[in-house]
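User: Here's a chain of 193 residues. Predict its fold as tokens.
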Amino acid sequence: MLRKMYDWVLHWSATKYAVPALAVIAFAESSFFPIPPDVLLIAMTVAVPTRWFHFALVCSIGSVLGGMFGYLLGWQFMDLIGFHIVEFYHFQDQFDKIGGWYQQYNAWAVAAAGFTPLPYKVFTLAAGAFQINFPVFVGASFVSRAARFFIIAALLYKFGPQIKIFIERYFNLLSTAFFVLLVLGFFVLKYVM
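Assistant: Prediction complete.
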């Protein structure tokens, strides 16, 4: 089933609707949606490697705008919407810890969540709820999200045909590894930090 979805996304990623879909998914994932945009970014870059820079830029901008929306939700609508999102991901206990990280590390906490598999959406809500400096938040978000997406896209561009064969050959293993990293990010935030 995952293989069919991969083939479908790979085919769809080369259509005229791929770039808007990438922007929307990147936006939504940064504030409330559970699926990261990396999946579509990878499929699009593999399908049309010469547009890697454009895809990474769209993904980065969409993600930062979504992060800004998450900040707004945390700042103005935490009681109405934000806490429901935090509860959905079972991060009620960690939410206050994130506030402490913001006070201690400020931009570094945002950058860590933006670049790693940590759930960036929880950090965007917390940034608004704890009212960290908005320009610092946006700058750290852009640097970390752009670094993540540009590195992925550039590697796919550089090693395109070989990486496409590798992805197709080891798709099930890579899907499992990606899922494990995603779950590990949630686990680290929930139980370790």
